[in-house]
Amino acid sequence: MHAAEGRHVVSAGTLAGKVAIVTGGGRDIGRACAMRLSELGAKVAINYNSSSLGAKTAVAEIVACNRQAFAKQGDMTNDCDIAALVDRTLSELSANIDILVHVTGGLVARKTVGEMDIDHWNRVMDLNATSFLRVVKAALPRFSDGGSVVALASQAGRDGGGPGAIAYAASKGAVMTMTRGLAKELGPEIRVNSVCPGLIDTDFHKVFTKPHVRAQIANITPLKREGTPQDVANLVAFLASDDAAFVTGANFDINGGMLFS
């Protein structure tokens, strides 16, 4: 018997009254995370950089269900933009933050070591790893005891990534190591975990992975399909909830069985 795709792993209402910030919440995995957290009862602050339509329609859908959310544009590599996001969250949703889901990141471009310059390396590291540090530092003073941080790492952080993805893989490996270190430093008050998606049906792979490669990868996984943003959002929601109260410092694979760790 095959499990239904997109099955919810957290019962409705388990995040009632919680306040969540989702960075990179305007599309794909980030948007799915924002919607799932809201479905479970959280008030959600959605950050986006360029995906304004996805963020604003997410807010419209949430508000139509009589739940609270707002969308705010901001560059999560910029401390002023991060502070503005945190300030609005505190003034509009609650005096404290309970959940931070950091999805901000990207490959930028496929470049081999011979092709890349140090500016490319720095840009990718700043976008994926340093942004995570910046947002955690900004949110930390107002984080509630019992809070949860969930970051988006990647299967690339485990296996080195595909062609031209060394900078991306290194940055996601840094996120995984930061997850372990932050869990030690911020516990017991705050739990910190990350998820490591494999092949997920997102704009990322539509842009950077050729269709025949995607089909080949999907076919060799035990589940014989690509993952969906909702699949990832379900795992994120579990880690954000009290159902995962004894889970911290972990990097969870979600790749259909493509890579076991």
Q: Compute the number of helices.
A: 9
Percent strand: 15-25%
> In angstroms, what separates the terminal alpha carbons?
25 Å
Strand order of the largest sheet: 3-2-1-4-5-6-7
Low-pLDDT residue spans: 1-9
* H-E string: EHEHEHEHEHHEHHHE
User: Shape, please?
Assistant: globular
Q: Biggest sheet: strands, sense, closure?
A: 7 strands, parallel
SSE class: alpha/beta
Number of strands: 7
What proportion of the residues is helical, as a percent range?
Answer: 40-55%
Gyration radius (Cα, Å) is 17 Å
The whole-number mean of residue pLDDT values reads: 93
List the helices and strands and how they pair.
Blueprint: E1 19-23, H1 28-39, E2 43-48, H2 52-64, E3 69-73, H3 79-92, E4 97-102, H4 118-139, E5 143-152, H5 156-159, H6 166-186, E6 190-197, H7 203-208, H8 211-220, H9 229-240, E7 251-254
Parallel strand pairs: 1-2, 1-4, 2-3, 4-5, 5-6, 6-7
Helix pairs in contact: 1-2, 1-9, 3-4, 4-6
